[in-house]
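Q: I'm building a small set of examples for a reading group on sequence design. Run inverse folding on the following structure and report the sequence directly after it, with nothing in between.
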């Protein structure tokens, strides 16, 4: 890969992502916090976008050779998608050349991805390999527009 980056005054830093769960049942607390640190982050992209009712939107594309609005596959270290709607869920699809995997993202929920790699299958078989995601699509089956937040961090 050829490095075509310009000289910069940005100093890379460590991104820390905290996932916390808090619950007390019958007076017993079952709290848990997990912190993941990702070193050398020098580029971030954070945006809020609207997905129209009944529409599917490509919210991010990833390529080894970056062109236009695609993110660099090798440089992407963390992705978070948050459904900002207070009522409706969306379907998130992670796709690559020959497979796709989807999941429901409930209202107010976030999907953190600590790897650009994923895979999908047409059966219940366990997957044993993963390849780089090429696109993230979001489908809004609700009757109204839904706002999403996309955060991507890379080196």
């Amino acid at each position: 890969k050829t490095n075509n980056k310009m000289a910069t005054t940005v100093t890379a830093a460590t991104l820390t992502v905290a996932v916390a769960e808090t619950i007390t049942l019958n007076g017993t607390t079952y709290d848990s916090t997990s912190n993941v640190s990702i070193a050398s982050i020098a580029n971030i992209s954070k945006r809020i976008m609207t997905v129209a009712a009944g529409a599917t939107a490509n919210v991010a594309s990833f390529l080894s050779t970056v062109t236009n609005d695609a993110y660099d596959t090798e440089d992407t270290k963390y992705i978070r998608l948050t459904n900002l709607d207070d009522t409706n869920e969306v379907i998130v699809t992670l796709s690559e050349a020959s497979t796709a995997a989807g999941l429901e993202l409930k209202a107010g929920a976030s999907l953190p991805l600590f790897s650009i790699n994923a895979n999908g299958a047409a059966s219940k078989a366990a997957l044993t390999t993963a390849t780089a995601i090429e696109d993230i699509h979001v489908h809004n089956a609700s009757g109204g527009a839904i706002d999403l937040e996309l955060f991507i961090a890379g080196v």
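The mean pLDDT is 92.
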